[in-house]
Amino acid sequence: MFTHQDLSELQANSLKMQNWIRQQTFSPEMDKKLRRFSSWEVASLILKINQSTFRGRLASDPTLPAGLVEEDGRQRWYTLEEVNELRRKMKVNRQSMMPERPAGKRAVRCAIANFKGGAGKSTVALHFAHAAALDGYRVLAVDFDPQATLSHSMGLTNVSEDHTVWGIMARDLERETNRQNAAAVGAESGTALPQRRIPAAITDMGLGDLRVNDFIKPTAWSTIDIVPSCANAAFVEFASAQYRHMNPEWSFFAAVSRYLDALPDDAYDLIIFDCPPAIGYQSMNAVFAADLLYIPSGPGYWEYDSTTSFIGQLAEALEDLSAGFEQTFPAGKVSLPKVFQDIRFLVTRYEPSNDLHRAMVEAFRKVFGDRLTDNPIEMTRAVEQSSRFLSSIYEIDYRDMTRDTWRRARGSFDLAYDEFKETFLAAWQKLEDEA
Ligand SMILES: Nc1ncnc2c1ncn2[C@@H]1O[C@H](COP(=O)(O)OP(=O)(O)O)[C@@H](O)[C@H]1O
Ligand SMILES: [Mg+2]
């Protein structure tokens, strides 16, 4: 017979081996590095200008970054920093190359969410983050999924749960409870309201002392940061239920929203949330903080089925929150019921030659109408392969595969990103000025 003690012993053994196993499984230099981009990519795919125009500019302006010429080729290769410098310094047809950003607004926030594992959430989140960074935007990714696929893909493997969304939530519980207690003391109603207490187990963790930036880690992409996750953060689902019990008036679902509100408005342009495959405390935080809901779904019948039940359950959960917290929800930047600027469905892992897939996309179109994006993301070997190296198609060097194969896989994400960009720009415009 076995008890929790046996489980603890098994875990202690496992922990001893953890680092060794990690070293054996991952490549020895786990430090992720971003490659350079060729002048062909920079001109045609990134800045979207004529290659000869690009060469002309470089020849006539010695202050522009020159990139690196590799021994075997004629092309110049640029780092992301150099690409961004080119973007800042160059004008084409008197037009700035800087990406569009509505003035005076905070970053726009997008949750990539669905119930189903394997829907392509993390793949979409990773590729949209990379596409946006190549487009000149400054991106913050927030990994809400303790499976931490996005964190691993962005090179973060040694993460403690204190520095995940779980930490943000526990910190928020402490801060919100203190705020409520202070308000109760300050109330002039004569009868002082009871003080809520948070157990030392939480306050002793010192999360209250953490600053906003303590949760944010840099990645190999200089314009992408991440709030990472890790397996231990799965604990949040369990602990949060107890936390709610300690303080039922704690608006647990708004913790991340409050956290992001504390960032300077112009720190980032786009904040992307990768959600766990379940509705729970973490995913409710993602959804609640989001301006935009992007729902990826595979093209099969079962995926259609689970996407349908996902939106049903999400609707119920949001309605419950609205009813339950109407009276107690603190006034501030967010209010109830939760309002999204837009909701879009995106079909992923689509095979254009597959009759069933085509029929399913038509069904999606009938049901969701304009809420379905025009460009599904195609299933490609190139993306499957690059994900095995924990990389996006944007990160993989096109010389590592047939250029057409790479081009086609990238093209599919480019189209989906262009549509995503249109959507987030429209949502961004609609955000109320908060300055
Ligand atoms: N467009 C695609 N082409 C090929 N493989 C894909 C594509 N999108 C996702 N995959 C693969 O499907 C699997 C599940 O995708 P993932 O993004 O991790 O789903 P989720 O985050 O929803 O659980 C991964 O192995 C991923 O590499
Ligand atoms: Mg995932």
Automatic annotation (TrEMBL):
Superkingdom classification of source: Bacteria
Annotated ranges, domain AAA: 111-311
Pfam family name, one: AAA_31
UniProt cross-references to InterPro entries, sorted A to Z: AAA_dom, DNA_Partitioning_ATPase, P-loop_NTPase
Q: What is this protein called?
A: Chromosome partitioning protein ParA
Q: Which organism is it from?
A: Paramylibacter ulvae
- What gene is this protein translated from? repA
